Target: Type II secretion system protein GspG C-terminal domain-containing protein
Amino acid sequence: MSLPVTKHQLSITRSGFTLIELLIVIAILGVLGAAVMFTFRGARSSARDTQRKSDIKQYQTAVEQYANRNNSLYPLRDATNVRVSTTLCADLGLAVCPEEPQSANFYFYRSDGGVSTGAAGAATFYLWVRLEKPPTPVTYFVSCSDGRVGCTTSNPTGWTNACPAPLTAC
Model:
């Protein structure tokens, strides 16, 4: 035997969400948002490092083309760790120079020349830039006139005029 249902009993239905359900959803969305932001931050620094490596390789190509036009000699730049965009671009005759994606880092060039005239006269060179990843130890991407390209944790500023070994893949 079933009990009769009144109109009043039918009109009481649950509508909407409780406060606890809303708080749980907001908490889950907050955790997911934080995870996405953390992932994108790492992706952006990796993208900038990829851009840096590409730019150094473009500079290496330009320096090699310069040497092809100048009896296999590279631009002379002394051991003052020349910022590429301020001097080397003019030496190479480039109208547009790749710039470092962040102003905190710069591309550098060093040759075995004893003077810093920018004229053809150096037998060796290396280019380098500091990478963002990994943050520790500090890592540098290096491109050498002998064809070696790779990473090192040794600061290139203190090197003599030769590209040191070993460079690791990065």
The beta strands are 74-75, 82-83, 108-111, 120-122, 125-130, 140-144, 149-152. Helices lie at 7-11, 19-69, 88-92. The mean pLDDT is 83. The radius of gyration is 29 Å.
